[in-house]
């Protein structure tokens, strides 16, 4: 997704030993003393368009402390959305906030850089060593682990180590002996940078040596304020604080006038601090807390969450946090399989992020300070992406966190000036990016699957408010006409389709709560997808206000201003997850539906035609795995009596779109969605329709997995023989009994037990073929 502004055991060991006996090349998990954190490789996705960061963080933590290789201007920022590109030769510093896998960028707050010798105040040119404070480095010197990052800055001979807590970033710098050591703090840079982005900043040194400051930026979320508090493990010998506004050397920006350097405080838009320590005989530790509210809260965060000086202990705690989080699933497989699986699970547990201070304060979409009452406030919501698999994965694995997430969504809605749920929000602020009101299915999916602990009536009211706010994405015309007219709103076909699904999910929750009138209203709206269906061309299309389809029509065309959001007709015409049977009927029945699905995957497509749509990547024919509208398509064969083709296409996708390399993601990870797709698919099932209790069955890509559920039960998935020579499902059993249908109920997983796949070389074209075997087999809306 690239976002644009607009107005998610004894018996077990015995089973594992049995598999190990049959498949000697397969290992069970990892050394239990090390835990699954040792299986994670955070470098995956840091090259190409994965947009992940390699630095230190903890599950859903507020801090993402990571190296930045570049913070280019907004015209060239796409590949540096996480601040780091694996192919870059230099590091300009370590900042404390990053998105994981986003298609847009911001953050990169509180940049810290350890340096030696002469001090340079500008980052310099990466192609000209010594031109600034940035340093060359080698990947051979990097150590990249879950919760820990280390690198040697070769221009300075400094070994930099990073780890993190929930609200604290911990640094340890080992400087060369007999060289003056300095730490530079730059409050100017920001990912997706441009001149004048920093509206105002302040920086000061307190009598006890604590350094604090805040800055306000006009970035992706305009008017965002972030504050920090920083302490050093050793006293400074001197310090200089600069306001560089008039120097004209930073991104071409000239300010109203330079101020003299100062040792106590500075205010302005281009602040730099340099802290001197002389020649050090032992490593220097630095700890940094952030706050979205004020400096006092940042200090309180530092005092409570960052007590003491013991970097190694904090690193051990970060590793333990990841081992605990990842232990929810034990996977057997080859080293490559386990690395792919646990790195995906790791990426799926990076967002949403904690966005609340230790006293409960957080900033809402109204830019005001609020205080959480009995819950933790989380933000970083890429809703258009994460509602599909990321948040359903959390419902399955961490329903306790889903409760906290829903509290956060309701709190954000109540603080919204427009009274609607988050669309694409971070640090509490709204960006209005992408389409749909997909916080609605996030809440509905959790409720339908039994997540409780929040006010359901308040949640439903928030959902209805979001679904009926007319100015948002031309919902007014959608409610009036049953579709979004293209002469009133761009990308109208996509909006019509996505609104219809969101409506259906709202209806499911209302129905489950006994709110019949609300359920009826939104169930009827859910059928609006038919208003985008053109039987003449066989594609979903946008209509004009007069009811006619817009002409001319080219199903291959994609781009802003088209009928579709980051896609074309080949990719979006399958988006009716709430009524697959109705879509199959509209397309002419099973055979024609399957034939057209085959055309999607088998088409000869020149990727160059999408050169102006950065996020359409990972192409297999028209199928674009690097972007979310395609993510459910391979599973649709299940609904048309051809699950063997789902199995075939899933292997095609897994083999070509994921790899355990820095460029191993075909597209943006999108705050965990790409990775959540991998986790579900590797387990053998996928939530095609969040807000139902059904998962479509595909085929597993690990030989054995044990999901340790929050209710104390364990659900295992096993497959044998699992290798390239046996890519198809021959038969499936659930708890030892034949399973002839191609879907699972959520309750069946929660009950514990075993799902076993017997794999074979040739497809079983009879398994799951009949109507009774299919999920959601009956159309809900007639013809």
From TrEMBL:
Give the signal peptide, or none. 1-27
Molecular function terms in GO for this entry? hydrolase activity
Q: What SUPFAM superfamilies is this protein classified in?
A: Six-hairpin glycosidases
Q: Write out the entry's keywords from A to Z.
A: Hydrolase, Signal
Q: Where is the Glycosyl hydrolase family domain?
A: 297-760
The record's section on InterPro entries has: 6-hairpin_glycosidase_sf (IPR008928), GH-type_carb-bd (IPR014718), GH92_a_mannosidase_put (IPR005887), GH92_N (IPR041371), Glyco_hydro_92 (IPR012939), PNGase (IPR050883)
* Protein name listed in UniProt: Sugar hydrolase
- Which species does the entry assign this protein to? Rhodanobacter panaciterrae
């Amino acid at each position: 997704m690239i976002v644009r502004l607009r107005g998610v055991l004894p018996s077990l060991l015995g089973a594992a030993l049995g598999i190990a006996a049959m498949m000697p090349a397969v290992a069970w998990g990892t050394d239990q003393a090390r835990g699954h954190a040792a299986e994670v490789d955070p470098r995956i996705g840091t090259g190409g368009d994965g947009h992940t960061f390699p630095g230190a963080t903890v599950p859903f933590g507020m801090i993402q402390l990571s190296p930045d290789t570049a913070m280019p201007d907004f015209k060239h920022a796409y590949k540096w959305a996480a601040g780091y590109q694996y192919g870059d030769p230099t590091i300009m510093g370590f900042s404390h906030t990053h998105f994981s896998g986003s298609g847009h960028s911001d953050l990169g707050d509180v940049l810290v850089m350890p340096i030696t010798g002469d001090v340079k105040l500008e980052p310099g040119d990466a192609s000209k060593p010594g031109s600034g404070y940035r340093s060359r480095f080698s990947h051979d010197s990097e150590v990249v682990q879950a919760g820990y990052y280390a690198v040697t800055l070769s221009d300075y001979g400094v070994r930099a180590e990073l780890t993190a807590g929930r609200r604290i970033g911990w640094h340890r710098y080992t400087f060369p002996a007999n060289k003056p050591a300095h730490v530079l703090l730059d409050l100017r840079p920001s990912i997706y940078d441009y001149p004048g982005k920093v509206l105002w900043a302040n920086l000061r040194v307190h009598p006890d040596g604590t350094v604090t400051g805040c800055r306000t930026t006009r970035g992706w979320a305009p008017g965002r304020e972030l504050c920090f508090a920083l302490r050093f493990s050793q006293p400074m010998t001197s310090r200089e604080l600069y306001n560089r506004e008039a120097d004209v050397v930073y991104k071409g920006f000239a300010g109203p006038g330079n101020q003299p350097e100062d040792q106590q405080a500075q205010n302005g838009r281009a602040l730099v601090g340099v802290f001197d320590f002389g020649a050090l005989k032992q490593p220097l530790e630095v700890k940094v807390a952030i706050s979205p509210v004020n400096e006092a809260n940042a200090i309180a965060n530092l005092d409570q969450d960052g007590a003491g000086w013991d970097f190694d202990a904090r690193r051990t705690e970060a590793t333990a946090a990841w081992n605990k989080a990842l232990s929810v699933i034990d996977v057997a497989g080859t080293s490559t399989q386990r690395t792919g699986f646990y790195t995906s699970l790791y990426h799926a547990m990076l967002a949403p992020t904690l966005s609340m201070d230790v006293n409960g304060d957080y900033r809402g979409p109204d830019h005001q300070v609020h205080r959480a009452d009995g819950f933790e406030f989380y933000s970083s919501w890429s809703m258009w992406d994460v509602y599909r698999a990321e948040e359903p994965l959390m419902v399955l694995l961490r329903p306790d966190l889903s409760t906290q997430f829903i509290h956060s969504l309701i709190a954000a809605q109540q603080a919204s000036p427009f009274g609607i749920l988050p669309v694409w929000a971070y640090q509490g602020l709204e960006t209005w990016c992408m389409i749909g009101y997909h916080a609605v299915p996030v809440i509905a999916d959790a409720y339908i699957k039994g997540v409780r602990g929040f006010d359901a009536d308040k949640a439903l009211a928030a959902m209805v408010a979001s679904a009926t706010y007319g100015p948002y994405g031309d919902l007014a015309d959608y409610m009036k006409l049953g579709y979004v007219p293209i002469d009133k709103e761009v990308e109208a076909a996509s909006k019509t389709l996505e609104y219809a699904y969101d409506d259906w999910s709202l209806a499911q929750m209302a129905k489950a709560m006994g709110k019949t009138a609300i359920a009826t209203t939104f169930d009827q709206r859910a059928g609006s997808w038919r208003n985008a269906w053109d039987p003449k061309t066989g594609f979903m299309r946008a209509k004009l206000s007069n009811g006619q389809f817009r002409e001319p029509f080219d199903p291959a065309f994609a781009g802003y201003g088209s009928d579709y959001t980051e896609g074309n007709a080949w990719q979006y015409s399958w988006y009716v997850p709430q009524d697959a049977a109705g879509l199959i009927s509209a397309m002419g029945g099973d055979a024609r539906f399957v034939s057209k699905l085959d055309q999607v995957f088998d088409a000869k497509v020149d990727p160059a035609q999408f050169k102006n749509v950065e996020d359409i990547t990972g192409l297999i024919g028209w199928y674009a795995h690097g972007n979310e509208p395609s993510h459910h398509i391979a599973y649709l064969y299940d609904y048309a009596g051809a699950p063997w083709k789902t199995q075939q296409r899933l292997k095609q996708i897994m083999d070509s779109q994921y790899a355990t390399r820095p460029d191993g993601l075909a597209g943006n990870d999108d705050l965990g969605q790409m990775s959540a797709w991998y986790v579900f698919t590797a387990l053998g099932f996928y939530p095609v329709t969040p807000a139902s209790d059904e998962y479509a069955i595909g085929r597993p890509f690990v030989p054995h997995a044990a999901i340790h559920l929050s209710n104390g039960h364990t659900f295992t998935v096993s497959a044998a023989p699992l290798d390239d020579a046996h890519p198809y499902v021959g038969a499936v059993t659930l708890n030892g009994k034949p399973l002839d249908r191609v879907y699972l109920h959520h309750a069946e997983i929660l009950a514990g037990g075993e799902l076993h796949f017997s794999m074979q070389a040739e497809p079983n074209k009879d398994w799951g073929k009949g109507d009774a075997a299919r999920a959601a087999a009956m159309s809900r809306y007639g013809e």
